[in-house]
Write a structure and sequence with these properties.
homotetramer, alpha/beta, Rossmann fold, Dihydrodipicolinate Reductase, domain 2, 2 domains, 6-stranded parallel β-sheet, 6-stranded mixed β-sheet, 11 helices
Chain lengths: 344, 344, 344, 344
Amino acid sequence: MTVRVGVLGATGAVGQRCIQLLDGHPEFELAAVTASEDSAGLPYSEAAKWRVDSPIPSEAADLTVRATDPDEMPDDVDLVFSSLPSGVAADVEPDFAEAGYVLSSNSSNDRLADDVPLVIPEINPGHLDLLEVQRDERGWDGAVVKNPNCSTITMVPTLAALDQFGLERVQVSTLQAVSGAGYSGVSSMEIIDNVIPHIGGEEEKMETESRKLLGTFDGAELAHHDADVSASCNRVPTIDGHLENVWAETRDDVTEAEVEDAFRAVESLDLPSSPDPLVEVFEDPSRPQPRLDRTLGGGMTIAAGGVQTTPAGIQYNTLAHNTIRGAAGAAVLNGELLQSEGWL
Amino acid sequence: MTVRVGVLGATGAVGQRCIQLLDGHPEFELAAVTASEDSAGLPYSEAAKWRVDSPIPSEAADLTVRATDPDEMPDDVDLVFSSLPSGVAADVEPDFAEAGYVLSSNSSNDRLADDVPLVIPEINPGHLDLLEVQRDERGWDGAVVKNPNCSTITMVPTLAALDQFGLERVQVSTLQAVSGAGYSGVSSMEIIDNVIPHIGGEEEKMETESRKLLGTFDGAELAHHDADVSASCNRVPTIDGHLENVWAETRDDVTEAEVEDAFRAVESLDLPSSPDPLVEVFEDPSRPQPRLDRTLGGGMTIAAGGVQTTPAGIQYNTLAHNTIRGAAGAAVLNGELLQSEGWL
Amino acid sequence: MTVRVGVLGATGAVGQRCIQLLDGHPEFELAAVTASEDSAGLPYSEAAKWRVDSPIPSEAADLTVRATDPDEMPDDVDLVFSSLPSGVAADVEPDFAEAGYVLSSNSSNDRLADDVPLVIPEINPGHLDLLEVQRDERGWDGAVVKNPNCSTITMVPTLAALDQFGLERVQVSTLQAVSGAGYSGVSSMEIIDNVIPHIGGEEEKMETESRKLLGTFDGAELAHHDADVSASCNRVPTIDGHLENVWAETRDDVTEAEVEDAFRAVESLDLPSSPDPLVEVFEDPSRPQPRLDRTLGGGMTIAAGGVQTTPAGIQYNTLAHNTIRGAAGAAVLNGELLQSEGWL
Amino acid sequence: MTVRVGVLGATGAVGQRCIQLLDGHPEFELAAVTASEDSAGLPYSEAAKWRVDSPIPSEAADLTVRATDPDEMPDDVDLVFSSLPSGVAADVEPDFAEAGYVLSSNSSNDRLADDVPLVIPEINPGHLDLLEVQRDERGWDGAVVKNPNCSTITMVPTLAALDQFGLERVQVSTLQAVSGAGYSGVSSMEIIDNVIPHIGGEEEKMETESRKLLGTFDGAELAHHDADVSASCNRVPTIDGHLENVWAETRDDVTEAEVEDAFRAVESLDLPSSPDPLVEVFEDPSRPQPRLDRTLGGGMTIAAGGVQTTPAGIQYNTLAHNTIRGAAGAAVLNGELLQSEGWL
């Protein structure tokens, strides 16, 4: 049975990726797209300056863009993906939830709220049950689920794998692609032949979101993990694919082989967008690389490599496609989990 | 009084930078250039495919390239800069030293040898006295002094500044420019829209060389520093300028202001290539950036920024021009120290 | 019925693309791969440093690399793709043809020889009959067919479309991707933040090959087209996809609409690798663009746009994927034509 | 005697270059900077996000930004450089001229107006006398002089050199740097690993401005040159430096040597910013290249190379620094000409 879905903020960079991923999706059928007032009433093909590297799907091209307002959403839509700017999302998402829509949102607002599940389906699917708390507290018929920031998603699956050894301290340096800032986020004069060693708010997101994702939900409250996490974030001249250098200290001593085995043992789910394996481990220390490895598993695989033990803990590199696994694909996968767990 | 100097391996990327830096040097006069057998006998302008972004200096252009052999070096040359491939350097540098030449070498061979001083003049000038041990042990009239690897030089001046607080542990992620691998070292197909998270041997160089540079020389033996150093090295699509994300743990607690003051307090030397200030500290957390800041102080300044204290220690970024401060300029500056200390 | 095929020079950049394109091919089955002496005897997965952005096909990975010698080729191989360096190809291709193998070669040697068909299947399939002349003159049981240079292929389909209006003069400026020079052909220090306005031999190839492709074969001799062709070739920092600015003067006056219609009217063939449409015409003058449009039709489409009439003739832009349509895919498509026309 | 100067639109990319070029200028002293209302009242160092690769000049840093209004300009300013957006400039420049200020403007408005001189000092200094017509017609005490578009300036000096042979037809393909579109003009997602074969309005500017620059002024009217000019404009991933492939047809037959001699014979002027030689001719066909050659003559040299004769006329490449020779430096040089010719 097909779920009819809508996409809020469908003309932006993440919105376009979302439209691309929904094309031919086995469970979801695109029924509505929204954008800012200026675009309302236009055909999607005209409103979106399509920049993804595959042609615009024909069923999306012909949809009429709607205003981003629950009153404009067709009643038979059961699931709504949101990739709105966080300021807009903070205003609008509660309205949709109140109107009964279930939202899988990539927007950064409210990710840390006590009653909002922040979910990577293969890692912490149980956190989805926070929705009961959410509905109780907010009196919503609908619901809001969040996926984490792209740089957080890239490292958390491997950190989760290491937590069996007692994760105590994490340091991570990121080399992030320009698409993470949106289509106009990084000008070419800023980044050609250059690196920018700062991304506003990114370090804090990585530090706080990862502790929430690795935390424990007892059915009533979510206790965040107590590992120290320290991030240093850099923008580099790549189009897609965030690469991260990680050091992780664990309570137990572990060998490189144990680490690689733990990575490989992270299980994928039986959902359309969950890749198998979830974590691809490279023996070649020069891999993974963004351009060569970002599209593994349709862009949903977490790639890891360069595992070694050092005085500063386990050291390794990890890579994920930031606008697929790190954004649009993350939201779609959360939608699949919502469907599979009976929340729609 | 002018010192006549020679350059070994003058046609390579570092050799060309060296020729550029010697142009108009107040103390040194270029008297001889060497290269591989194929180039011997050719005018330098023909042997070197000149690729530096300033025109080839006329006094260098007309020199006849010599074979890299002490018998071919003019007797009145007192100081020889070496930027040979390390394999060649290991064979040839001892011959030059035995023949009485004093070498300031950028080649990586023998940097860790007990009787070879590894020197950044503003940081550990006293290590130069290891040359007495060297001459005793090897029976040379000449001498060999080394400068460290480009990625090591970039971080050591700031680490040295922190050692007053008891440096215990260092972790560093590097974002290194392609020029560090030489002119043909990184193909464009490898690096456009990409990052390579591995540089062979680089991590070990950073770990071992920095401990030697920060070590203590008692007049007889050099004790390496005992801080743990762990490096993760990446190649990024920038032409020049290595940027590094550093975490440094110290025994004492320190504030961000104390760290910045310590950086600013590192003293430059009264030598032509030593910039003042040695360390330029940026308040803007998005600086330093390779393209904007690599040519500060003629490429000899160490730039730092983004200082913050974290659970994992002091966190900051540092940047230096890898083929100037990190290679050719480092060798020239060591030459200036040798002259000033009376070793020529 | 499946044709068993071999690939000469299978470890290089074009060879790897060829292996990628043969994976899952409906008519061809990969039976043998060759490389230089050093690699002979190794599994292909080990000999080839695989750098294409999809995983190495498993049937190729396990093949043992052979020496590039007809005596080493299995007898049941009927079709051989060659992407050898042209110097090697000049030596070896005649040996394979003499030994009875039919070669579809991407190597540049002999492209202009009187009895060697130079073929783009959708444009000049009739030139294939030159093989009768070739076999007569050389006494071969096998045969050699060539595809043109990547920059030539990119523009010739549209020029062929304009020849109905009397093509008299062509000027073309190219913006060529680095992959056209092979994996190590362009160093990153040469091309980051740069353009190289010269590619050795490329201008002449475009001028002579295009006249041969547009020429007329009367069953005995091939008369080259008499249009003047003048090319100016540039290397730019793109990975794949050659973009070309073309001016074409024709005897007849034509409108922009007639030009676009002529482009759209070029027919594709009923062969697995021939895309439909062959020429995709963009109305948006900022398209085609290499990164967005190079993979149209699996990399086999010729994209065109920016059509306008000027005092200097018809002006337009054209784009093709240089290592697919311009090299490996061109050879595979020629193989499909050879099979369909009964030459195997 | 020093001329006090003002800069309108001083915080933009061209404005910053202008401030950089005025630092230490032998004739001009920076007295006032203007920007949009938002910045008025701020110190320049705060209003301008300084992004040029040399530190902000101290005398500029401390100036208070003024509104862009002649009433706000100090009376003792005699020369005003304008790098305003063309829409703003069209409104404001006449007010400044009416108020008595002499403007050297880089803005594109009014470049083709009959009574506005469009000048490259070394090429058509006599066009400056159009100012008499301008003052007569407009009743201004001040004046407005324009420099051409960056892509036009790059090719016109060499075209002027060829006009002695009877210039009849010009075709040019450009490979333009991102800085030509201003700091935020080209997003990194548009241009990394890509080319954009269209720049809005640029082709027409090259076609019309070059005919005006090469035209003849008889003291009353300016007759534009009648050569056909056809341009095809591309944006490529370089920071600075426009490279252009030119074909020029002349009435007379010429040899490559005659062309190179004609280029070398273009005379520079005895003005501070006019380089000697004006045109640097390279024998190596792979030069000039943007990264290696854009800073020749402080960024004011026109570089040329690859000269050859073809059936389509003389073919060559030319390069200039687009924000120096092509914008800020062009305006400064026009200011020097205005001063030297007694217009201030």
